[in-house]
Amino acid sequence: MKLRLSWAVAALLICGLVATGLSWIGSSTVHAVPVAVTGSATVVCPSHEPALVATRVRATSGSTARVLGSASTVTVTLDGLTGGAQPYVVTGDQSLAALSVGGAAAGPLKGLWATGCDAPAVEQTLVGLTSDATHRAFLLIANPDPAQAIVDVSLFDASGRVQAAGARGLVVLGNSTRTLALEPLVQAAEPVTAVVRASTGRVRTVARVEGAGGADWVGTAAPAAPTVVIAGVPAGEGERTLIVNNPGPRRATVSVVALTAQGAFAPAGAESVDVNAESTTSVRIDSALRGDVSGLKLTSSQPVSAAVRATSTDGDVAFSPARPAFAGRSVVPLVPNSALVLTNPGESEASVTIAVDEGTATPTLVAPHTTIQVPVTTGRSAELATSSSDLRIAMIVTQVDQVKGIGVVALGPGGIAESTVSPTLDPRLAPA
Description:
By secondary structure, this protein is mainly beta. It contains two helices and 37 strands. It has helices at about 1-25, 285-290; strands spanning about 30, 35, 40-45, 55-60, 65, 75, 80, 90, 100-105, 110-115, 125-130, 135-145, 150-155, 160, 170, 175-180, 190-200, 205-210, 215-220, 225-235, 240-245, 250-260, 265, 270-275, 280-285, 295-310, 315-320, 330-335, 340-345, 350-355, 360-365, 370-375, 380-385, 390-400, 405-410, 420, 425. The protein is about 5% helix and about 55% strand. The strands form nine sheets. Strands 20, 21, 22, 23, 24, 25, 26 and 27 form an eight-stranded antiparallel sheet that branches. Strands 11, 13, 14, 15 and 17 form a five-stranded antiparallel sheet that branches. It has a four-stranded antiparallel sheet with strand order 3-8-5-6, with no helix packed on it.
């Protein structure tokens, strides 16, 4: 018995000494090991009846698409897909980016059309809709899932929340689109904001605004926040109107800073904007911007969402909504006669690499509090990548086929293509 006890004590002592010795051996860390991230992304792209607007849906090459309501898919090429009466549902990898562009030289939908494609979500905000004697606005609510969705639409005009009984409890059947005209619900000379919330399911909503001078889609704005940034305010003559929505119960005071190639400044007449609770306010800023391409940074006492409505000299209209930071990587289809607009509202220099048609990645630096424009003269796609948490990116389009006008595609956020980890290797856990 004593012999067994002695052996047990000895074994315990040996184990303790080994453990103590191993603890003196430092662990090692391998830094910045790239790990590929796999997965897929799905977005919904609006389209038009070909007889009214010649639409092209363009997406990352190699992605697949189906017409909403159909089960058959096609592979997307860089030339894009011919649009039809129903939206396209596009699926690709994490770098997926897609957009819809179109043009009508005449008719009720005359103008250049352009907007980005977004993923379905539970809530979306659309800022800058107009429904009055000369304009009509429609919400196109698409449900790409097989089960039905139920949505409520809240409307905010300059006077406050609009009491619209016909905008609640809307059923959107699976794999279908429901169109909601604002005309019976609201008549307002000033812009209106629509917030679409799904109590069941998820949807992708885009608005369509029609007017005598021009028409366009209105894309989704970033959710209301104390700080929002708008990229892609076009250069040139024409109206530029900042539209701000305050969905909360308290009055908001919003400070506005314009970001141009020359630096930041407070636009005269719009340095500070007050927005009543649950309402939408607009203010002209074109004279203050002096025709320069720019971005806007809004800092508010209450969460707000925002967009800029721009018109060209011939009356065409475009909408540039506030968006989240691009931060990430996307392969973006390029549109001829367009330009990438990069806005950096941050305190540090931002770098983005641009590789056209899988060519050499060229770094572009954007100084703090500035906006620069990069013309797109060649190529059919560009890989954009940035690690900046501030940079916003938009594409300004001035011609589609033979139709000239103005259109803005707000890009981002970028998808995750690669992540880095720093694993710690502990020798005590090494196999025997």
